[in-house]
Amino acid sequence: MTGIDDLKVLVDYAVDHGKSKSDAIIARAVLSSDAQVRFSQNNIDISKTWRSLEMQIFAVVNGTKTGSTARAVATKADVEKAVDDLVAFTSKLPDSMFYAGLEDSVSKYPEVQDRYDSNIDTFVEESTEIVNSAIDAALQEGAKRVAGALMVTKQHFFFRSSLGPEGSLKKTGHELNVRALQDELDYSGQGLHSGTLPSRSEKEMIEAGARAGRLSKQAIGAVQGEPGIYDLVLTPTVAANVLGRVPAQANPFVIMMGMSPLSDKMGEQIAPDFITAFDDPLFPGGIESTPFDWEGTPSRRTNIIEGGVLKSLLHNTTTARMYDTESTGSSRLARMGMGMRMLLPGESNIVFENGSMKLQDLLDTDRPTVYVTNNWYTRFQNQQSGDFSTIPRDAMFLVEKGELTPIKNVRISDNTMRMLSNIDALGNDRTQVYWWEVRTPTMIPTMRIRDCRITAATL
Length: 459
What we know:
The chain has 459 residues and is α+β, with helices and mostly antiparallel strands. The protein has helices spanning 4-18, 76-91, 120-140, 202-218, 236-242, 245-248, 252-256, 317-322, 359-362, 416-421; strands spanning 24-40, 43-61, 65-72, 145-161, 166-181, 188-195, 223-224, 228-234, 277-279, 302-306, 309-310, 331-335, 341-345, 350-352, 369-372, 375-382, 387-392, 396-400, 403-408, 410-415, 423-426, 431-435, 438-444, 447-456. It folds into two domains: 4-186 and 197-214, PmbA/TldD fold, CATH 3.30.2290.10; 222-291 and 301-311 and 348-456, no CATH class. 22% of the residues lie in helices and 39% in strands.
């Protein structure tokens, strides 16, 4: 399998074979070419590439029974077995409580800008040189040890629904994570860069290494932080993890499951009037940008928070009918744990409007302030209320009269809705954040938030 035409053959076979056995069937063939470079102790450990071909299928059987599968395929026989197994399994399931139909209109799809890097293959061949340059940049900024990984992806896919919609997409992406350390593990820094056009991002990747090294050096001498109430200045990395998830919870399924703090907030002021956040599957260079959703509904921008007010939820065909509204083109085949997938509403790229302030101005404050550059292990005590805690990692600073003192071993223990309402200012540095702590691409600037609760970290 080498191209869209080959994928179309398999998808057509899946749909043609399955439509007589089901009420509706959607098939998507995905050809992926991936490359990874891993490094530690200032050296590359491994550089590898691999390819895979996966068939993803969703079927409706006996009216309201729904099921899905995703498996590797190579031949028409593999596709036929995948369809037959799915139909047989789905027929034994109870009626779905979360299905009210699929997209059945054939549409012309919008274009997506900056989604495919035509120089991707050349970039992969040169990727070890770029990683070495990022390592060198970190060392030049004062790091002693550098580790991390660069992941590069290329994907072609074709989909078709038995109800009419069909389409194809080529996309590329990259995700670089650089960690810089001193001899003391507490003195560390991180640099990230992600996007869709890696061959145009070499400068930014090298700067990610330099940033990691710079922060690592600045963290030397970190002292124990004191619990208390502080203003927080959160880099895009941290803001995406803590507050970027709030617009993504404007999801009817998540609300019905009792896992969203937005269930009764429609039309309410939940953030300052200078906060606007939206889901945009057409965002240029967005890692999850796509011209259509999983059912084949055309993609469009959905304003979730506008002027600080909760304006809209994300819908697929099913939830739109449940809520007596229109689909927002947000249907996704979502993982539900242990291999299970459901066709649900889901976000693509969460985008916050940019601010106007420079970082030095955000830090120019006479209030007790902590500047957090990275965080790990965000955990919710109550998803419905938004109560959570997270551990700042790497370089973190107490800000006093413009001076930064490195601190360590504290935890942010607060509430996402309260923090959202207490945003005081936005930086002018909106950045796409995507790494293992932020799996929804989030375009977000540095944020300053008033009166946040810092507690002592437990070891």
